[in-house]
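Re: the 277-residue chain
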Amino acid sequence: MLSIHGSTLRYEGANTVIEPALLQVRGLCKTYQNRTGLFRRQAVEAIKPLSFDLGVGQTLAIVGEAGSGKSTLARILAGMIEPSGGEIAVEGQRLVHGDYQTRCKLLRMIFQDPNTSLNRKIRVGQILETPLRLNTEMSEEERRDKVVQTLRMVGMLADHALFYPQMLSAGQQQRVGLARALILNPKIVVADEALSTLDISVRSQIINLLLEMQETMGLSYVLVANDLGIVSHISDEVLVMHDGRVVERGKTLKVFADPQHEVTRRLIQNYNNEYRR
């Protein structure tokens, strides 16, 4: 398959079928105006104009050094930060900042630290039910059934709906985060360093769960990560960011096997040095 102008060419015998990419990002950018004095401001380009596509059932990894802009990009995609310019479209439908009801049915986010992203004052069932109550016409009984179904889908018990987040292990909390992301049946899940705080055994369980959900639900992922081992294991393509711009992109294994940019080579060297410890 070849990607051309945001579409995928699929060959069927003598016919060529053009399939649009699931996620299309065009000219996306973000500029902050930082105050440098009483009457002066300085423009800081956190994200310089960039474009990319994501296909159905594919995983795109975004990597880079601290301050490269990768988490800012993820939060723009999720609607948490308003871009300064550019467009985001899912299945050809443009996502407008502030239209959360449309966006959250198409694209959802898993956060890095469930301790801060899950409200510790309400039960897991309420956490999962809230998106359904705000974005669907489901009855109360239908919402309860959906909560239980989603908990079981991510490997938890129905009784966990009665728990408060602090009563769960770190791995279980991240499963709740995944359940919250999946409960509206989105097309795309953005994961911002969602695995970095977990120990190795739990991380492996969550990775396997993500891959299983991708296979059964046809999900696409945008994965922000620092662990290049995880990136090489589960992503199809990778964007390497530096100072707010994409400096290298391509098929993950090809980029890691033959990096063309100094930043990519440095990331790989740092990962290898850390891995040898």
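The chain has ten helices and 13 strands.
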